[in-house]
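Final paragraph of the annual report: two paired records, presented back to back.
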Amino acid sequence: MKNLKLILAMFLVLALAGTAFGAPILNVAGDGIEDIDGEAFSTYINSGDLDFDIMTGVTPTIAYIISVIEDKYGDMYEFSGGKVEYDEDTGSFTQESPNDWFDADAVADGQSGTWWTTDSPQSLISFYSVFAGGGLAIYKVDPAEAHGSWSTYDLFVEGFHPGADLEVSNIVGVRKPGVSVPEPATMLLLGTSLFGLALVRRRFKK
């Protein structure tokens, strides 16, 4: 029984940590998720859910994207954002000042990749946007995560592409203030507390 309690406590700690950190999601061909004619659209799929109608004719600044989110969910959270711009020559992203906490990368075709937060403790992304081919898609991440993946799939199927491919232009990550991944010391304290509670309960039973 004691070992079972310890294992359950460890699983709880790992589950809490896993929920916060998140992970990119690889695209699996033929599963019906972000596929084109049964073939995977790109390497990764979107971590979030497309939560807004795709927009066109807009300038995807951080302020604009936050205003769209606040129009739907209210301004009670005081959202802040970080933006990265894609350079097709280098195939990489550059953080747009003053962003120093949100970053992303892309696979060779520029149609998908991963995103993450770099501050400490790590911020959690509640929304992110993908701008490509003149179209803007905004995704909701629930629960919020510090690491995920993006793709231009939804923009592609809506026709925002000049040819066979749809290369990303920029990505914006949006966070709520004060929401972050627990520090390692905090996770250790939580695990120790759970273990201590199990020991105390065992002693009372004796």
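The closing record of the year follows.
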Amino acid sequence: MQHWRWVAACGMSAIVTFLPCERPASAEIASPQATTAATEIATIQPSEAVESFEKTFGVHRGLRRNHAKGTCASGEFVGATVAQEWSRSALFQGDRIPVLARFSVGGGNPAVADVDSALPRGMALEFRLPGDTLQHMTMVNIPIFGAATPASFNDALVAARADPETGRPDPKRLNAYMASHPDAHPLAEWSRHHRPTASYYQSIYYGIHAFLFVDVQGISHPVRWRFVPRDGVKELSAAEMASVPHDFLESGLIEKLRKGAVLWDMVVYIGEPGDPIDNPSVAWPESRRHFVAGTLSLSSATPQHGAPCENINFDPLVMSDGIAATNDPILLFRSPAYAVSFGKRISGQ
């Protein structure tokens, strides 16, 4: 496999693809915490990032610019009171909280086959708390992000753009991107060892970013969370990847929920001094203290057109009292970028 093929398949995992692959000997992996001077000083506006999605995936009027293909679901969440030690959020009072969910396939093409490019799967949640307040969690089934800054993220989109003459990304541009963006390497390395998951409900969904839990004393605690399926995780075999239907994720989820609810445990990891809270491309050690903070139960699913989740802007900075953002530049960038995309799609653009 040529180097550029590895770049296309692995280096762009969080944004463009999610394919199992092997790294050739010529592909060097830099330090996960390394960044380039160009990336550090570059700036990008939310509207520019949205335009990059449009140039890479095309414009599909009235749809999200990323994670365009999706499925709505609904259910409830019951928080574990043990989490009250760390957060005063109403999410963890032990009440049954209604939830609207949206599962999705990454990228801006709503007609993409679920397995053709094996893009990351997403799970976005809107918790409807007492007092008409909301909590959003917007997650994907990869544990880290493929960029440390918005500028680096945009560079990946540009590098993945198809050459008009070949209809495929330019190998030289992809190689140049990987050589100058070591923040993309940790996810590329992780992706080498994983195949696409077999269903929406057999995936772990990661918050990717670090957040802050704020307790009743006003003390902040850095955390990361993930939703772990009670049904376990299953990745597709090579044979299954060659035989699954075009839209197996949505049909599989709808059929599964017709037979009964599907559960995920919300597992929260507590950060320690030195753990990065502003770089989603770097993972925390699995040995960090963690606990189950609640259980999500989804009981029904439907195609997204006309369904409740279709018009929700799952802004990850919509948070209840007791949960707060860190200074992660990717996290802070997502809210205004989502707003640009939302404005375009509700106006039919």
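The domain at 3-346 is CATH 2.40.180.10 (Catalase HpII,  Chain A, domain 1). This concludes the annual technical report; the extension proposal builds directly on these records.
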